[in-house]
């Protein structure tokens, strides 16, 4: 028997393999809430414009509520024969309320229906992700407030560069996450237009009210071009691009945590709640969550590329290729939310090892720049000369196997007679970070202010 939803001109039902490649119900059932919400808005509009009667609208809307309840409680029978979530719901509506169900699809196509459902879904996800990112920012800011003066080595090229504070390091990620939130907010603002009423591709001859459905679904306005509305997936791509960048940020932090948790760095200890053991090596505390967060960046970035490739050669308007938009988006956003939540837990529980970080901060002549700056400020040397003098002092310290602060004054004066006892006041790591008070610098006073800790 031919398909009951669209099989009027068909004699035979689809081949098994056709059904298998065509069906999306296995994954798009995730859109059921959005589908029902949009259908109710559409039905209310059809009644308000006199396209269907008030009684018909009541029957449709009641039936949709019943279906929502069935799906919620697991009593709904999803059928692959019925292809996708839209036809599954419509078919059940017919079983529940009879032929009136067929009126719901007036002035609508699955093309504008799926575009609407998917926008609503992505919009909900963006809101959830924003909440998650805000919570992660809060966890980082808490660590920053607690460790505004905890000194650690700052690296460039992963070589010890200058001392910084752990709080400052945490706040660097807070900044990245702010930009991520901004990118999601931009994507949300642009996607917030309603495709509903664009119908298959050309609009409709029925006297519909697109403003009404747009408002009911909390869209800012209806989309302006029906061809564009049913074939645009920019909103999903833009969201995936924002997700990819956010995942990249999480991955960088995850990579640092993996390093910090190692015996070699020992900069931080992860809680038992966020570590795993080894089945053979009893001493191990593995940072698996951080590693998985780092790895998920691959599939999130992959999702962006996957959808970009699906879209790149499609002529207007809708093509079935676009059904392949959903799985990458679902997978990427679920992965990102999980990564954000795990990172939030890990950061909240993490205990920085102050002693190890302070010790490492003093290694590698990390206050050499402070020495050069002192020579500029107190001895009047041009910075380039000060750099050269400091280089010679570092070479001496290296030869003697001592940190800068442990060199004798006479040794320093042999290199430059303008050096006085006062120079020792800038050679400690604590003095170094304290002096970095320039706007955006690592000084504990800055960090406290930025972390909202006074
Ligand atoms: N399941 C389809 C999708 O996700 C819905 C739209 C189908 N439209 C059509 N004309 N076959 O894209």
List the helices and strands and how they pair.
Blueprint: H1 16-22, H2 25-28, H3 32-48, H4 54-72, H5 85-97, H6 110-146, E1 151-156, E2 159-165, H7 166-191, E3 193-194, H8 210-216, E4 221-222, H9 226-231, H10 234-260, E5 268-269, H11 288-311, H12 326-349, E6 351-352, H13 354-362, H14 368-379, H15 383-400, H16 409-415, H17 429-435, H18 444-450
Parallel strand pairs: 3-4
Antiparallel strand pairs: 1-2, 5-6
The site of arginine (ARG) has 10 residues, from helix 6.
List keywords for this structure.
454 residues, mainly alpha, Fumarase C, Chain B, domain 1, Fumarase C, Chain A, domain 2, Ribonucleotide Reductase Protein R1, domain 1, 3 domains, two-stranded antiparallel sheet, two-stranded parallel ribbon, 18 helices, binds arginine
Provide structural commentary.
It is built from 18 helices and six strands. The strands form three sheets. A two-stranded antiparallel ribbon has the order 1-2. Strands 3-4 form a two-stranded parallel ribbon. Strands 5-6 form a two-stranded antiparallel ribbon. The N and C termini lie far apart (73 Å). α3 (32-48) packs antiparallel against α4 (54-72), α10 packs parallel to α12 (326-349) and α11 (288-311) runs antiparallel to α12. β1 and β2 form a beta hairpin. The chain has helices at residues 16-22, 25-28, 32-48, 54-72, 85-97, 110-146, 166-191, 210-216, 226-231, 234-260, 288-311, 326-349, 354-362, 368-379, 383-400, 409-415, 429-435, 444-450; strands at residues 151-156, 159-165, 193-194, 221-222, 268-269, 351-352. It has three domains: 18-106, Orthogonal Bundle (Fumarase C, Chain B, domain 1); 111-208 and 220-358, Up-down Bundle (Fumarase C, Chain A, domain 2); 364-453, Ribonucleotide Reductase Protein R1, domain 1. The chain has 454 residues and is mainly alpha-helical. The site of arginine has 10 residues, from α6. Keywords: Amino-acid biosynthesis, Arginine biosynthesis, Cytoplasm, Lyase. Pfam families: ASL_C2, Lyase_1. Residues 365-434 form the Argininosuccinate lyase C-terminal domain.
